[in-house]
Amino acid sequence: MHPSTWRIAWRNLGRNKRRTGLALLAIAVGQFALLATNGIMRGYVDNIRLAITGPMVGHVQVHAPEWREERALDLVISNVDEAAAAIRQDPAVLNAGARIYAPVLVAPEQDAYAAVVVGVDADVESQEFGLLSGLDAPLEDGAVLIGYLLARRIGAEPGQEIAVVGQGADGSIANDLYTIRDIIKSPADIVNQTGIVMTMADAQYLLVMPGQAHEIVVRTTESGQAEALAARLAELPALAGTEVVDWKQIVPEIVLILDMVDYVGYFVLVLVLIAAVAGIANTLMMSTFERMHEFGMLLALGSRPSRIVHMIMIEAVLIGLLGVLVGTFLGYGFEFVTSGTGIDMASWGGSGAEVEDLAFKGLNLPLHIFPRLEYSDSVLGLVAVTITSLLAAIWPATIAGRLEPMEAMRA
Asked: What is the pLDDT of residues 57-68, one digit of tens each?
């Protein structure tokens, strides 16, 4: 292809600046929408995945069979310390902590309220992504943490003494007094709504569960290997007779949501392609009819029809590439501006809204999103628009390529 064909095609873009500008704007806005949507969706997916595999669910969980369905107090993991120690031997395990859950009544004064005791390994849960991550000082025996919504409902305050009454695993009455160390806001909705968090030793003593727990939450250093880790742990002799499941089996509904999010980007991509086809096809068609006389002159002077076709195809690609370039610049500018502060979707509910997280299946899914783009996002738009530009140019290029010199010169 002769270099002059490229120069002529580039010069032709400026013949009707307004029409070319509108086509570029349509493609640029579409590319920007694609990148902004993909960035927001990827940031939201990151939030969901961290909420699931972080404080509440972990990457892998170990339970007594049927505990997830029945939540019965007596469905326990025996010798839980030995089981947790065996799990920690796997090199892919970041940490593993046991937990106890039990329904109780809590009485700050005279009235009693329904609550749930959550017994935790304070050392493990105080680490990053743990249930008590960010706590100023380790939770100690004799002290409890109360979810902020439960504290608001029962009127509890730090330093106050409360009575906790329930049923022990052996059928006995479980009761004791505890001091409220702090009111907490947890990523786990069950803790915020009804949670009384205490040390594992306190929970085992209160509920008569020596050396026992209801689950072991395992976090891995390789988040994409949860399924393989669960399969390895299931083979450990120390976990014989237990159920070992990865997070995708525990919350399949949320996994479905994550899969559906991927299709949002493809929907926006379709809109980008529609904008590209409409903008480029209209621009080239109008340009082709306006230049009939010019094309006739070129053909009469010996230019081949293929050169006319190449010229129009190059114009289409140049419009597409320039539009994508502008849209990509705007998209990455959007990510740069929002990557530090994030986007607080909770504020979209209005100035009087108090919602900060979305609760689903006992999890708090943060609504403060930090958009994140990947290299493939811009490449996807670039390739798609380039191909679409060529397709949009086929019709006007075909018309121009079939011109007879004399007829075109009389047009």
From this structure: 889 999 999 898
SS3 104: strand
Give the domain ranges of the chain. Answer: 3-52+254-410, 59-249
CA distances from 112 to 20, 109, 134, 153, 163 (A): 72, 8, 30, 11, 9
What's the mean pLDDT in 273-295? 71
What are phi and psi for residue 59, nearest 5 degrees? -90, -35
- Distance separating alpha carbons of residues 19 and 282, to the nearest angstrom: 9
Using an 8 Å Cβ cutoff, are 287 and 399 in contact? no
Q: Residue 149: which of 119, 114, 184 has the closest Cα?
A: 184
Taking the C-alpha atoms of residue 247 and residue 210, their distance in angstroms, rounded to an integer, is 27
Q: How far is CA 162 from CA 68, 105, 152, 173, in A?
A: 29, 10, 14, 17
pLDDT over 50 at 352, yes or no: no
Indicate the SS3 state at residue 264: helix
* Chain centroid to CA 345: 14
**Mean pLDDT of all residues belonging to the chain:** 82
Per the CB < 8 A criterion, the answer to whether 214 and 76 are in contact is yes
Asked whether residue 323 carries a pLDDT value surpassing 90, the answer given is: no
Model pTM above 0.85: no
Give 146-162 pLDDT, tens digit per residue: 999 999 999 999 999 99
Is 347 or 121 the better-scoring residue by pLDDT?
A: 121
Give residue 237's Cα distance to chain centre: 36
Q: Quote the crossing angle between the two packed helices 305-341 and 3-12, to the nearest 10°.
A: 60
Q: What's the CA gap between 145 and 191, in Å, rounded?
A: 9
Q: Are the C-beta atoms of residues 153 and 132 closer than 8 Å to each other? A: no
